[in-house]
């Protein structure tokens, strides 16, 4: 077998040959095992149908479900629901959205059929209840976002805004270039605020 003349190899080819010959440590992604802990209704989780999860400044995990709100401290679940006694009672059963209000150490809880509740992250007690029944069985709350002291709520019949400071709720028409384009009911599935403080409502 005739070997190639090394003088004809360029520096690049020689370097590549050395790299392939020398043993190299593996650079692939390391495999590690993760332990998953399963929580079920046997652990007092109120429902498998979970809509949203947030964490407050104290480290509690708040879980919005179709059958109440759960607060998890790492060991056990505490349930807030409509038929609860004392300071754990909410206005509705189906919790559609939650917001961690870190400025005031509150969790705002939106139920589909009842209204809005505020729960203290410090005491774990319901401290405010804002009923939102409109007399229309088809008007369910769906989503919400918070900007400063206002909570914008999307529902099957439009957008509402709750003024936390003045404890006042009002309906908001959808406008286009300062002209109302929809003053009849419309379905606002999702809303959010951008960096400029604008509220975006996704309507069907």
What's the arrangement of secondary structure elements?
Blueprint: H1 11-21, E1 50-55, E2 61-65, E3 68-72, E4 77-80, E5 95-101, E6 106-111, E7 115-120, E8 126-131, E9 141-147, E10 150-155, E11 158-163, E12 168-172, E13 174-176, E14 179-182, E15 188-193, E16 199-203
Antiparallel strand pairs: 1-2, 2-3, 3-4, 5-6, 6-7, 7-8, 9-10, 10-11, 11-12, 13-14, 15-16
| Biggest sheet: strand arrangement | 1-2-3-4
Structure summary, number of beta strands: 16
Main sheet overview: 4 strands, antiparallel
**Continuous helix count:** 1
Which whole number gives the mean pLDDT?
Answer: 82
Q: What gyration radius follows from the Cα positions, in whole Å?
A: 27 Å
Query: Structural class of the helices, strands and pairings?
Result: mainly beta
Series of H and E elements: HEEEEEEEEEEEEEEEE
**Morphology:** globular
Low-confidence stretches: none
Percentage of residues assigned to helices:
under 10%
Q: Please give the alpha-carbon distance between the first and last residues.
A: 76 Å
Percent strand equals 35-45%
Characterization of the model:
The chain has one helix at residues 11-21, and strands spanning 50-55, 61-65, 68-72, 77-80, 95-101, 106-111, 115-120, 126-131, 141-147, 150-155, 158-163, 168-172, 174-176, 179-182, 188-193, 199-203. With 204 residues, it is mostly beta strands. A 4-stranded antiparallel sheet has the order 1-2-3-4, with no helix packed on it. A 4-stranded antiparallel sheet has the order 5-6-7-8, with no helix packed on it. Strands 9-10-11-12 form a 4-stranded antiparallel sheet, with no helix packed on it. The mean pLDDT is 82.
